[in-house]
Write a structure and sequence with these properties.
- Strand 3 and strand 4 form a beta hairpin.
- By secondary structure, the protein is an alpha+beta fold.
- It has a five-stranded antiparallel β-sheet.
- It has a single domain, classed as Hypothetical protein yfbM fold (3-Layer(aba) Sandwich), CATH 3.40.1760.
- Helix content is 38%, strand content 19%.
Length: 149
């Protein structure tokens, strides 16, 4: 990860699971090794991913943030220091169907929250997220985010 990617010190692991109940089990120890996962830092499911969805779909950020699956907490532990959050089906679907993500990564790197990120690093993350979304969509699964402060 580029310098600046760790300044928040929050881990965000994106993963696919068949149900909210199954995803909630990731609260203990995270999803790695239990669910298909993409590990990231500083890419929160509300603001950063909401802006990504806006870039990919053209839907307004306000509309995306009003989606009931936009970073809804389905499991919380340790006074909110560990969370399992939902990711919108819209983001899953648009990522799964996305073509070349290099140009999107350049535009995404331009948002305030990603200042200091290398667009090439973001492009690699997007490719990993796309693969996760494709697999989730094919399996009838949804995307989630495990967050740990």
């Amino acid at each position: 990860m580029p310098e600046g990617a760790t300044k928040m010190g929050v881990l965000y692991d994106y993963f696919a699971a068949p149900t909210d109940e199954a995803a909630a089990t990731a609260i203990d120890g995270g999803p790695v090794g239990r669910f298909p996962t993409v590990e990231t830092k500083s890419l929160d499911p509300a603001v950063v991913m909401g802006q990504l969805e806006e870039l990919l779909t053209g839907r307004s950020y306000d509309e995306i943030s009003d989606d009931p699956r936009c970073a809804d907490d389905i499991a919380i532990e340790h006074d909110g220091e560990v969370l399992v959050l939902t990711v919108t089906d819209g983001l899953r679907d648009v990522l799964a169907d996305a073509g070349d993500l290099d140009e999107v990564a350049v535009r995404w790197a331009g948002i305030e929250e990603l200042e200091g990120f290398d667009p090439k690093v973001l492009a690699e993350i997007l490719k990993d997220l796309k693969a996760l979304a494709v697999q989730a969509k094919e399996n009838g699964e949804r995307l989630y985010c495990w967050a740990c402060v």
